[in-house]
Amino acid sequence: MMTMRQIRFHGRGGQGAVSAAALLSLAAFEDGFEAQAFPKFGSERRGAPVESYVRISDRPIRSHTQVYAPDAVVVLDATLLRSEPVLRGLTDGGLAIVNAEGEPEMATGEVAPRWLAVTADRISIEHLNRPLPNTVLLAALAGASGWVGLPALETVVRRHFGRKGERVVGANIEILREGYRLGAAGGST
Amino acid sequence: MRRQLEGSRAVAEAVRLCRPRVIAAYPITPQTHIVEHLSQMVADGELAAECINTESEFAAASVALGAVAAGARAYTASAAQGLLLMTEVLFNIAGLRLPVVMTCANRAVGAPINIFNDHQDSLSLRDAGWIQLYVESNQEAVDSMIQAYRIAEACELPVMVCMDGFFLTHTFEPVELPEQAQVDAWLPPLRFSRALDPVAPATLGGGSEPDNYLEYRRAQHQALDHAADEIVSTAAAFQSTFGRTHGALIDGYRLDDAERVLITLGSVMGAVRDTVDALRERGERVGALKLRCVRPFPAAGLVHALRGARRVAVLEKAISAGAGGIIAAELRAAMHAAGIALPVDGFVGGLGGRDLTPASIEAVFAASAAAGPAPIGCQFVDVDAADEAARPGE
To answer: CATH for B250-390?
Structure first.
């Protein structure tokens, strides 16, 4: 299926960019791949820009450097489009998934080969009563790319949120399915 | 079992498998997750140990010292300023020849304050009398923790396993965790012959006079020297039981027919291996060498491994301010002592968490290849170009 896929998440502290990367790596591992996830912490405060990285491969991953040529970027906060070079290094044909209503606007004039806007805040508020866009976008990435399967995502989300009770687990599973559907369908409007 | 775990969790699992009876620590980023996981395991009844949250790192090291002196296997972990606050106790642990094992989650030392990775903390303690192992991956961190107890207890010397903060401690990647029964069979319970016992009162750590202090220090130096054999045999024994090796003192990569060799330590070695492969594909005869063990310094092994090299570059994440790269200086001394005239170019980079990218590693290879007959003393990698131009000759 692949040699190596690299994904970069952009978010703000508290939005779950680090957890999203970890969950993606866990799902890829569940699907039988080699996987690596790690954060680039800034000053560890709410609201500050945060990056996290994932590598998925069918061969052992040796490098521990940051991701400079992502095959996909996932942007958890559309305001980052105005302040951070979120598309830097994106490969030809690379995918950008943004938590946004409608077409995202890039102040810098950068253009992603493929855009996907997903109303992740709205979906997470519907299910969890607060904006927690990470699992929606994670599932949308899975749906759009096919790099990990929905069953694997559901398994790791169940495990991850298990301690928080069945209601939280159930809501997150619903979120995953909706995100995955949107990703597979090419985005929401 | 193979599991996808955060590095800190993986190390905590490895420590649990070694059954320490005392865990003492004070939290400091990026070490915190390791002791949090261990504390959770003790609270959940998965690990029968006394878990002590001390009031400082000095106290944490002191508790580990006391625990081993009383015959209990002990563990602690720290980083950066926390490790340096332990300094006095770490020298004492080594001087008392106590087999304490700790993890250093490598982090830069302030000022300026910086929570990110380099090797300044543990390399600044290279003279403390501890065995120091530097690991490349979380699998190596797990395996080295288990080896560390066996080495420490065989040599009656403390072992510090150094793993890169964030680059390893906060990275999720697959690790194979051995079964408890396997580890139990491979690492029997600590039997410390000099353990303090009220039934047979004795003093550990009495004073020493000018007429015997020198002999104690010589004995300690010799013990470190001899520990090299134990590290090698432990790595071999580990491989035969668990089926994995990461090298013992050093780990060469594509050294056969390599004319130029890059030496480094820690997690950057993975990217260095990838870079060597890329350069080899372009026909460059390059190789790499991971320095797994910094103390005892494997001078003879390095001289042997580099016998075919024409030029060596050392890339290290620490500096002896006012002198230059630490490992480069030690390698030059080893070569000189062996009567070998091998140019050793010194590179310092990746300080305070700056990523050593594939491009920067390639630039180090290129700078070393382009250098004249005189070796590069100490060149900083990826420093601001304008800054460099303003201070030529660095």
So the answer is: 3.40.50.920
